[in-house]
Amino acid sequence: MAIIAQILVAAGSGARFEGDIPKQYAELGGKTVLRRTLDNLRAALPDTRVFVIVHADGDHRLAESLNGFEGMTITVPGGVTRCQSVRAGMATLEDLEPDYVLIHDAARPFVSAKVMADLVAMLETHSAAVPVLPVVDAVKTVQDDILGEDVPRSSLRRMQTPQGLRYKEVKPLYQSLTKDADFADDIAIAQNAGLTIGMVKGDERTFKITWPEDLEKAARMLNSETYMATGSGFDVHRIEKGDSLWLCGIEIAAGFSLQGHSDADVGLHALADAIYGALAEGDIGDHFPPTDDRWKGAESHVFLSHAKDRVLSRGGSLQHVDITLICEKPKVKPHRDAMRARIAELLGLTVNRVSVKATTTEKLGFTGRGEGIAAQATATIELPDG
Ligand code: MG
Asked: For residue 382, how far is its CA from the centre of ligand 1 (angstroms)?
């Protein structure tokens, strides 16, 4: 396992941030921004040490921000540049000799564990790694308040932090930084030395608190609580003569078919209804009326994909689904893994979040007499409040 150290740069004076306190000490949901960032870094990579770089003339909130992190604080004189701050941090890593260093800005409290894992993976093959995001707005130059040329945005990327570096390769670069060196970030230092830089996909949530309104946005994000919703679905289709039986997204040579307007996949219908149920958005018949000829003979994965897309458009995420098929035949067990794999694929879930089970009704009732197949399902979804 690679040894990873983290450096958290919290020595900025917040020149663009109104008010009399540097932004890293502003309050965000009962903690300072610095403390929140620190806690999130630790949660994302629990087995790493985080070194925090602060001004020697630090704010009185410094102590509360670093409570429990004593001994991991590096103080630098006020007024030094960002790269000089990181240089001071790098100098303290000599005993630890980490393989990789991740350097993060304290003003970006919402770090992404996935981005950090991607950076570490990228450092296996590159000297440095940076999270980047595309530029979605049109970009133009401005000179003396006159709008100028278009800048092709497809060639532009926004840089985020944490930025990852291979310690041994960058150590001499920081050691030889002159006092007036002022690179914009750590990737610029690596780039200047001709090192290979890998890019990973950044995360919009990891925005930088720069202006007072950014702090309001951060507070809103913190307050955007989620809730878990569970929906249930039930469906029945009549057995009829035929040779194509669709069940939970796969075709089975059962010697009979199910009757229905669509391909009559009773399992996927129950599952789609469970998802609509968790969303409280009606049922499959509301979204795909059986009177509409467009859905005649439709493949049922269309319904399930629609239900999944509704989850995504609500800002939710599917957590788990569970289907029970109720029939005497066919035997479900030989097909269970293929069913789970297909549903996982359709929903974008890992297979361990997809359950398919089967039962009989002891030859009782319509399923017992082999007149039809029933299915019931539950879906668990995490949804944003409001
Ligand atoms: Mg149905």
From this structure: 25
